[in-house]
Amino acid sequence: MMTRRNMLLGAASLGAVASATRSCSSGSSHEEAARSLRRPVAANNGDQAALLRELVRYATLAPSSHNTQCWKFRLQERSITIESDLTRRCPVVDPDDHHLFVSLGCATENLAHAALASGFKASARYDSTGSGAVAVSLEATEARSSPLFEAISQRQCSRNNYDGRPLSTQELRLLEQAGTSSDVRMVLLTERAAMEKVLQYVVAGNTTQMNDPLFVEELKAWVRFSAGEAIRTGDGLFSAATGNPAMPRWLGSRMMGMFYTPKAENERYAKQIRNSAGIAVFVSGASDRAHWVEAGRCYERFALQATALGIRNAFLNQPVEVGSIRPQFASALGLGNQRPDLVVRFGRGPMMPLSMRRPVQAVLV
Predict the structure, then answer these.
(1) What are the CA-CA distances from residue 146 to residues 78, 218, 298 (Å)?
(2) Which residues, 6 or more positions from 175, have their beta carbon under 8 angstroms from its beta carbon?
(3) CA–CA–CA angle 140, 142, 147 (5° rounding)
(4) Is 180 exposed, middle or buried (0-12, 13-18, 19+ CB in 10 A)?
């Protein structure tokens, strides 16, 4: 999800950076590890427990804020419960756990598509007891794969530049259908004037966040500066996935402090919005955890449909993350008192390195 900030490392300090990046670049091993996590679902040989673990593996390929993977899975004979893992919450960027529950929705959507491809119809409901969870019951049915299921292994938040070309009317219609439900609507912005208006709020939100030392420290804690660190932890934001070189944490932390500035980041976001085909804003009918989960399901369907069409997407969530800016942003979009959940840019561009995930055993209760 759900978000992320590129560390603009620039061309300064070429000597130290070049030496360190050579010693820390193991892109091939990282790519192999990331691809292994996305292998096809193993054939069902009658081992129900093994199949459920495979469904969990596909569910964990969903996005989460800072790639925290803020979920736990409880397996029963014919059901899977997706629970919130509050030890992986981000209290600065996500103080009310909005993004956390959106992430549970994203995992739920992946699980539903993987279950159907394996011969089970998934029915999900939000359970508000305790810290909140999504209960997914599984009913045997005819196995049916789909383009959205096939897209799970390729979906990513592509935090790079797109080619700026508009999408076709049919493509926009498919994206809008995928990202909409009875409880969530999607505001689709493709006119340049509307996108420039969104940029104003992205810049305002980004500037506020980057001037907050607690925000920067929380973000830095989830950055994985080297391929080895990304593989070892299985989570977080790998530098190469944002187009930056790999390097040791001690050096990456220093470089981030030197080059990760509001001005540089705002310029980067301006360029990326202007080379996008459009922006999608997801708005749920009410601001509660059940609707946040549904917003996550709608976003993930949108992202999977986009991936199936060869379209990239990435979050621009600053306007909805900063509490003082969010009402202004909602008003500018004509949303009244409704809370915008997610802001996403989309367009065509190259894939970036895939992010890591923790092993299934690590997320089982």
Answers:
(1) 22, 38, 16
(2) 167, 186, 188, 280, 302, 305, 306, 309, 311, 346
(3) 115
(4) middle
26 vs 227: CA distance, rounded Å = 6
Task: Indicate the pLDDT class of residue 26, thresholds 50, 70 and 90.
Answer: low
Do residues 265 and 5 lie in contact, with contact meaning Cβ atoms separated by under 8 Å?
yes
**How close are the terminal C-alpha atoms of the chain, in Å?**
23
DSSP 301: H
- Alpha-carbon gap, residue 222 to 217, rounded angstroms: 9
Residue with tokens 């804003």: 281
Query: Is the pLDDT reported for residue 43 higher than 80?
Result: no
Separation of CA 85 from chain center: 17
When pLDDT is cut at 50, 70 and 90, the band that residue 15 belongs to is: very low
Phi, psi of 91 (to 5 degrees): -65, -20
Helix (H) or strand (E) holding 189: strand 184-189
**Exposure on the CB side of residue 45, measured as CA atoms within 13 A:** 3
Preceding amide of 255 cis, omega within 30: no
Interatomic CA distance for residues 190 and 39, integer angstroms: 35
DSSP alpha helix (H) spans, 7-97: 14-24, 27-37, 48-59
- Selection from 295, 299, 307, 273 nearest residue 171 by Cα: 307
pTM over the 0.85 mark: yes
Q: Are 118 and 143 in contact (CB under 8 A)?
A: yes
Which positions ≥6 away from 239 have C-beta within 8 Å?
7, 223, 224, 225, 226, 245, 246, 247, 252
